[in-house]
Amino acid sequence: MRGRTVGLVIVALAAAGAFALVTLAGTGALGPAPRPPAAPTASGPALAGAGAPSAATEVPSSLAPPSSAPSPTPVLVPAPLTGRLVAPALAARHPIAVMVDDQADARPQSGFNQASVVWQAPAEGGIPRYMLIFGEGNPPSVGPVRSSRQYFITWAAEWHAVYVHVGGSPQALATLATSGQGQLVYNADEFRWGPTFLWRITQRVAPHNVYTDGKHLRELAARVGATSPPSGPIWLFGPAAPMADRPAGGTITVTYPANQIGYRYDRASNTYLRSVEGAPQVDAGDGRQVAPANVVVMTVVFGPLNDGHPNKKRLEAQNVGSGPAWIATNGVTIQGTWRKDSIDAPTRFYDAAGHEVVLTAGQTFIQVVPPGTPLQIVAGRSPATGSGPAPR
User: Is residue 383 a part of any domain in this protein?
Assistant: First the structure.
């Protein structure tokens, strides 16, 4: 959406400290220039009057100070995936999506803090899986990289991203075979591109041991021909709310069958500190806790995938269409909807009045859950009084 005017939406949570247990329902449907050194003093008799040196005592040009022009101000532009102000070369990078494992043996994973957008959605066995999308970030490590699923391809297709994975379901592999040369995504399977761009580490056992990094991901993108800049942004971004307008505290808890995801709003950083199974989620690549600027929980209908492998218990998702969504930014959570009009159309988020939500410039986490998933939301407190509802 080039040229769109972005305003900051600040909305309020429900009563402060209020605790809501929500059973999700629905059916799919970011001085002056230095002074030059003083010129050398001319020798000889004192100069008359207050004027410049006479012609006889004029300072030779070879001794005059060099001219000093101010350094140009760096030109920054919004990054399409985050809205952060970055160098144009970073904003022009083609997005790269990487499938990442979420089994217990895969933790702690690497790459989250450099990702622009992170999707988490159910996979088989009640164990969710991640897809990290990289724009301006340069991760020192990414992984463990895992297999593809059809619905993750459709989210990666919103950016025609390079899609990095290790094999996948028959359905996903069939899509990649016919539409993986840029039609939907650029197919980057480890079976084809490892170990040049991805490799297996010895510290973990297969299949939780495939890794890569930002340098090799960029090389891989060039190798598969994904060199065009992104077409975005596809979301609206605004600046962080002033400190005086940010609530104190507040939490979001999403419970998958195999694990529980928590977010605790941190007013000072205006981020949501993320936890997995009650423990802070730390990115193994940089040792810092994961803390996005925005959190979205969206309800999507899932069902069994009849792919001829019933023992695998793979899933399919109705992620084209619309459904309920909870959008949290600047410490405030609102209920609204998500909408995706086609397989490669962007997933957009709207408030209850149908207006597109403005996210805070920065990283966004999207939690995809089936109907009936418990969602717990605890509202933040008004910073002015320490109690009562968050400010409107």
Answer: no
